[in-house]
Design brief:
Elements: E1 3-8, H1 16-31, E2 35-40, H2 46-57, H3 63-87, E3 92-95, E4 102-104, E5 113-116, H4 119-126, E6 130-134, E7 137-139, E8 145-147, H5 152-164, E9 168-173, E10 194-196, H6 197-205, H7 213-222, E11 226-230, E12 238-241
Parallel strand pairs: 1-2, 1-9, 2-6, 3-6, 9-11, 10-12
Antiparallel strand pairs: 4-5, 7-8, 11-12
Enzyme class: transferase
Keywords: Amino-acid biosynthesis, ATP-binding, Diaminopimelate biosynthesis, Kinase, Lysine biosynthesis, Nucleotide-binding, Transferase
Catalytic activity: L-aspartate + ATP = 4-phospho-L-aspartate + ADP
Length: 254
Amino acid sequence: MALIVQKYGGSSVADTDSIKRVARRIIETKRKGNDVAVVVSAMGDTTDELIDQAKEVDSQPPARELDMLMTAGERISMSLLAMAIHSQGEHAHSFTGSQAGFVTDARYGAAHIRAVKPDRVINALHQGEIGIVAGFQGVNSLGDATTLGRGGSDTSAVALAVALGADVCEIYTDVDGVFTADPRIVPTAQRIPSISYDAVLEMAASGSKVLALRCVEYARRFKMPIHVRSSFSHLPGTIVVGDGVDANSIPNID
């Protein structure tokens, strides 16, 4: 049995049908004997829509209020996903970033994680439940909601995986792993079965959007394996590990 953290991005939970499909995948992982914690992004373009609404009422919204608003997107998706899992016969418990123990600095809009104390998530796992955590957000020392900036849910997932002592952090997206080029643009791009943290960091610095830079840096620092996969298929994806680590040693649930 493995402890697996799965992260689902906005395209994977874009609507209620997508959320039901993701719930089935999570339950499949759970029923194979694994403990599962999930980090979820806001549905589709919700975050961009919230920013647009904010600017319709205030062309220069206060950073604190904007963060309060933007955390709403992940709260919606985490709750709906927990409900979808419940409707399919499993127990799930959703948590905001603050409830999951994500403590950040005071920088609104681009906060850095200072600590993760996921006691409530651990309790849920011990009770046989699936823990669903809102990505992209935390709480500062004042008790105010903060957001982690673009790609923040990837960083949330890796940080949660490290704090839980997970065996692997699976990042689910809309492509089948890390490729030599963007397969949506270059049809001949080849999937890379395994790759080092340093190589992915180089790709991210050059503009690749598969993984957020801070997410990979966090994973490298704590030696947390990342498995990049598509939520729309069961193809093997790409394992991201340190130099010299055998990718075949990383748990693969399929």
